[in-house]
Amino acid sequence: MKSTVLSAWFEFLLPGVLLVVWWFTSANSSSFYFPPLQEIFVAFRESWLSARLTQDLVPSVVRLLTGFAIAIVVGVAGGVLFGLKRSLEGTVSAVLDFLRSMPSVALIPLAILVFGIGTSMKVFVIAFGAVWPILLNTIDGVKGADSQQIDMARSFRLGGGDTLWRVILPAASPQIFTGLRASLSISIIMMVVSEMLASTNGIGFAILQAQRSFAIKEMWAGIILLGIVGYVLNLLFILVERRVMHWHRNMRAVEDSSS
Predict the structure, then answer these.
(1) Quick check: 209 and 172 in contact, CB under 8 A?
(2) Domain presence at residue 12
(3) What's the pLDDT tens digit per position in 32-63?
(4) Residue 69: what are its φ and ψ, rounded to 5°?
(5) Is residue 78 part of a domain?
(6) In this model, does residue 251 exceed pLDDT 70?
(7) Of 35, 45, 52, 224, which shows the fewest CB atoms inside 10 Å?
(8) Could you tell me which of 179, 175, 197 has the C-alpha nearest to residue 187?
(9) Is the pTM here over 0.85, yes or no?
């Protein structure tokens, strides 16, 4: 308990120190592009603790979570399928490599033609960009499942579904969660880019509009909000990961103590 509190204290110590340094070093700033942090906080309160919270922040978060959820379903399902069926993976590997190498941003013009500039376009772009780390990590995780455990499950006459849920997915879950964490960062990036290029609301749209109208304080406020959103989502992801993967940490702790 004491170590947990201490680690949490150190986690917030550095950001707090950086904010204090930024506050005092910018206090007397007369630069148009780098206003005092105090004025940025005022702009943050006036911009984002108002109607813009529901007009821009909520739509962005909904798009982000929807695209991320689609990427999880497609990535995990496809990764399990290709990981179990090696011949099928070999058949589609060239197509997967081609699509994976394609920058998601390059698909935005096509997505606008197909879906328009609404929510569907942004969700598609987010999902397309986020699916690849999940898919590839799931394939590797499924391939790396212990063959002896799989043979043991078969010897106990477990069905294919039970073997998948009780043996293969738990063995692959560390790599799956690694892919999920990388995809979450990609989802945030693609959300912002899609909203900057074609949107009528959202955090990215608000930041770009503030920059175009030379509302620099509001622009900085939007950038800070993005950092807060990313930090909160990452924190929630870590909490979910710790809850789901507690058995993995306990197993590693036992292995470390035995060695």
Answers:
(1) no
(2) no
(3) 899 999 999 999 998 888 878 889 999 999 99
(4) -65, -40
(5) yes
(6) no
(7) 45
(8) 179
(9) yes
Is 90 among the domain residues?
yes
8 Å CB contact between 63 and 115: no
Does a structural domain hold residue 112?
Answer: yes
Classify the C-alpha dihedral 250-252-256-259 as positive or negative.
positive
- Residues 30 and 216: their CA atoms lie apart, in Å, by 13
CATH number at residue 154: 1.10.3720.10
Q: Based on the number of CB atoms within 10 Å of its own CB, is 206 exposed (0-12), middle (13-18) or buried (19 or more)?
A: buried
Amino acid at 179: G
Task: Look up residue 141 and give its two tokens.
Answer: 């995780």
Work out how many domains the chain is built from and give that number.
1
Tokens of 240: 């979910």
**Lookup: tokens for 118:** 């609404």
Q: What is the DSSP-derived secondary structure letter of residue 31?
A: -
pLDDT per residue over 124-168, tens digit each? Answer: 999 999 999 999 999 999 888 767 777 677 776 767 677 778 788
Q: Residue 231's domain spans which residues?
A: 39-258
Helices assigned H by DSSP within 37-168? 37-48, 52, 58-84, 86-101, 108-115, 119-143, 147-155, 160-163
